Amino acid sequence: MTTTSLIVFIRRRPGMTPAEFSTYWRDTHGPLLSACTDFSRHIIRYEQFHASDEADLGAMFGVSGDYDGVAVITFADPQAMTAAFAEPAYLSDVRPDEPNFVDLDNCLSFIANPHRVIG
């Protein structure tokens, strides 16, 4: 099965600490998104990757520190992704929450089709 994923590199809202960003994203926005069944019924998986404060590991791999997290939302196909983001409940309940913790003008996103190498 070929799936489609939206991958978003997220920067936190200016004035918000990394800890505040992580807490809000995990404990407020994540549950808000998953409770939006009109949206979540279209997805296969939603994962949040919060930036680690493991400075030694980051230096070892050349981590830039430009982003505070990565969201990966996987859909069965591009049509499911289009339908999810067009849902009225997403547009009225979830989308308005994003500026509360995300610097929307400075995020990076792309759509990808995964190719499994291991696992």
In words, what does this structure look like?
The chain is an alpha+beta fold. The chain has one domain (4-112): Alpha-Beta Plaits (2-Layer Sandwich). 37% of the residues lie in helices and 23% in strands. A four-stranded antiparallel sheet has the order 2-3-1-4. The longest helix has 18 residues, at 18-35. The mean pLDDT is 90.
Q: Calculate the terminal CA-CA distance, rounded to whole Å.
A: 15 Å
Number of helices: 5
Choose one word for the global shape: globular
Largest sheet: 4 strands, antiparallel
CATH topology: Alpha-Beta Plaits
Query: What is the CATH architecture descriptor?
Result: 2-Layer Sandwich
Name the poorly predicted regions: none
How large is the share of residues in beta strands?
15-25%
| Number of separate strands | 4
Please state the oligomeric state of the protein chains shown. Answer: single chain
Number of domains: 1
What's the overall average pLDDT, rounded? Answer: 90
Major β-sheet strand ordering: 2-3-1-4
What structural class do you assign from the helix and strand content?
alpha+beta
SSE order, as H and E?
EHHEHEHHE
Q: Using only CA atoms, what is the Rg?
A: 15 Å
CATH class category:
Alpha Beta
Question: How much helicity do the residues have?
Answer: 25-40%
